UniProtKB/TrEMBL annotation, chain A:
Keywords: ATP-binding, Nucleotide-binding, Transport. Residues 10-242 form the ABC transporter domain. The keyword Disulfide bond does not apply. SUPFAM superfamilies: P-loop containing nucleoside triphosphate hydrolases. SMART domains: AAA (SM00382). GO terms for molecular function: ATP binding. Belongs to the ABC transporter superfamily. Pfam families: ABC_tran. This is Metal ABC transporter ATP-binding protein.
UniProtKB/TrEMBL annotation, chain B:
It holds the Pfam family ABC-3. Gene3D superfamilies: ABC transporter involved in vitamin B12 uptake, BtuC. Its main location: membrane. This is Metal ABC transporter permease. The lineage of its organism: Bacteria, Pseudomonadati, Bacteroidota, Cytophagia, Cytophagales. It comes from Agaribacillus aureus. Keywords: Cell membrane, Membrane, Transmembrane, Transmembrane helix, Transport. The keyword Transport applies.
């Protein structure tokens, strides 16, 4: 089930990526709709992070190409924002919450230029959106996991981009943060921003996303949530892991109706 | 006056090294500083052999080239050879340093480029080596001007690239996503480290440079949680180390470079014990107070 869209936010054409001569992504060909909240789902080692990194052209492609808003990535780079996995940085780094959020403004500042008052205002506004304005002078070493994730999100928001790539923003966060993040994603989507999210939990995926990409080194499915999050495709994605599959089946069964009506 | 020149040179050197060292320790690359400080040796010797004179500018260029080459080699062995970073550092710098030693002993042994000087440096000679113009006017010790210029270059580099260096140090993945070249800033920083190292060569030598690169910023890191404060504090620690190191050396009639590094180590030990953030003794006291309060409240 691979559904293509007209005038896509992201177009991936015949993409293959290898790492140390081992293929990580095989012949991915997909288009993602504008203004959608898109979930990328697949088992560990399926190449989910690799896929979004190649979409942003942060790692070299072995073949194929990626176009964002029908342009080369380098032409629209300021419109593209990235939320890396929060484990990818050292949170003991001597920096304040404000320092980190201001980094989102760096893309708009050239060399020599310091963030101005206007940049600080945008940053503060973004901290308000994630409910962290009270923590602006706090050192990042003192934050909890959920707060770290919110700060990363605020930094991406401060960039005022059109498309956001997020690497597991829901991993290791508390329930309140998860709720705050999904509320924010919906708000962004209403404003026409495209959000691409790597996600692990199939149960909540049904509720959170309106477009799903199922990935396991090759593309299993790409399409609207209701048509892609079905047992047969999930089985294909998570192939072989029977206990997990049974669990998935149960979940799907339980969630089928509530999930459909919730959105 | 001699004391003044020596302390001034020492301060210039330790501020330059400390500022760059702050970035190195936050990038978990402290040992790259060690590697560069040793691996620039063949660069200095080759520059000397080509130009035939112990002219500081030529040696700075030779060392700078080798310093950046070292970081290239380390990256190359790590990425292409799939070798661990520490192993690729260990292989690269020892090999280059050995090459430098061979070059000195074989070709430059009769000139005033001797191993002792390169390895240990001698800051006490700073006031003797004067910069005299063609008209015979004495301007001042040569080392003061060299280390001073290097310090100005390094401070300008940090001011110009402050936010880029800050971002590429904290989160290189995000930096790359917003089109800030992590590789370019990495090599610029490494070039600056090579410069600072070479400028420090004559005064503190190849081995003790590492003390000035790492100890003051590591001390500052324990004392503050703000990056800008960390840089400023590192600079002040550098000055303090030069002053006290000099007088310690005078009072015991010992090596100035050795005394400076000893003071740097002592300051680190003090910060380790008494830092308000994570100091061993402070943490112990805090825990005691909490325990006491808890036991009293029951």
């Amino acid at each position: 089930m691979i559904q293509q869209v007209e005038d896509p936010a992201v177009e991936v054409h015949d993409l293959t990526v290898t790492y140390h001569k081992k293929p990580v992504l095989w012949d991915i060909d997909l288009t993602l709709p504008r203004g959608a909240i898109i979930g990328i789902i697949g088992p560990n080692g399926a190449g989910k992070s690799t896929l979004i990194k190649s979409m942003m052209n942060l790692i070299p492609h072995s073949s194929g190409y990626v176009r964002i808003f029908d342009s080369n990535i380098d032409e629209v780079r300021p419109q593209v924002s990235y939320v890396p996995q929060k484990e990818s940085v050292d949170w003991d780094f001597p920096a304040s919450v404000m320092d980190v959020v201001l980094m989102g403004r760096y893309a708009r500042l050239g060399l020599f230029k310091r963030p101005r008052k206007a940049d600080r205002e945008v940053a503060l506004d973004c901290l308000k959106k994630v409910g962290m304005e009270a923590y602006k002078s706090r050192q990042i070493a003192q934050l909890s996991g959920g707060q770290q994730q919110r700060v990363f999100l605020a930094r991406a928001l401060a960039q005022e981009a059109e498309i956001y790539f997020m690497d597991e923003p829901f991993a290791g966060v508390d329930a309140a943060t998860e709720k705050a993040i999904i509320g924010l994603l919906r708000e962004m989507s209403e404003k026409g921003k495209t959000v691409v999210v790597i996600h692990h939990d199939i149960q909540s995926a049904l509720e959170y996303f309106n477009w799903i990409v199922l990935l396991n080194m090759r593309l299993v499915a790409s399409g609207p949530t209701q048509e892609t999050l079905i047992p047969s495709l999930l089985e294909e994605t998570y192939g072989g892991k029977l206990t997990l599959l049974a669990e998935v089946g149960n979940l799907m069964h339980k969630k089928e109706f509530t999930g459909r009506d919730k959105r | 006056m001699d004391a003044f020149w020596i302390i001034l040179t020492g301060s210039f050197v330790s501020i330059s090294c400390g500022l760059l060292g702050s970035y190195l320790i936050l990038r978990r690359m402290a040992m790259v500083g060690d590697a560069i400080s040793h691996a620039v040796l063949p660069g200095i010797v080759i520059a000397f052999l080509i130009s035939g004179q112990r002219d500081s500018i030529t040696m700075l260029i030779g060392a700078g080239v080798l310093g950046v080459l070292t970081t290239f080699l380390i990256e190359f062995l790590h990425k292409r050879g799939n070798l661990q970073t520490d192993a690729s550092i260990g292989v690269t710098f020892t090999w280059l340093f050995a090459l430098g030693i061979i070059l000195i002993s074989a070709y430059a042994g009769q000139v005033d480029l001797d191993q002792d000087c390169v390895l240990h440096g001698e800051i006490a000679y700073v006031p003797i080596d004067l910069w005299i113009t063609s008209t015979g006017k004495i301007i001042g010790p040569r080392a003061v001007f060299i280390t001073g210029s290097v310090l100005i270059i390094i401070i300008s580099f940090i001011i110009i690239g402050y936010k880029e260096l800050f971002l590429t140090t904290f989160d290189p993945a995000f930096a790359a996503a917003i089109d800030i070249s992590t590789a370019m800033w990495h090599y610029l920083l490494m070039g600056a480290v090579s410069l600072a190292t070479v400028a420090s060569f004559e005064s503190v030598g190849a081995i003790l440079v590492v003390a000035l690169l790492i100890a003051p910023p590591a001390t500052a890191y324990l004392l503050t949680e703000k990056f800008l404060f960390m840089l400023i504090l590192t600079a002040f620690l550098g000055i303090f180390i030069s002053v006290t190191g000099y007088y310690l050396a005078v009072s015991i009639d010992g090596s100035i470079a050795g005394a400076m590094s000893t003071i740097a180590g002592l300051l680190f030990a003090l910060a380790f014990l008494f830092s308000p953030k994570e100091g061993i003794i402070i943490t112990w006291l805090k825990n005691r107070i909490i325990k006491k309060e808890l036991s009293e409240s029951f």
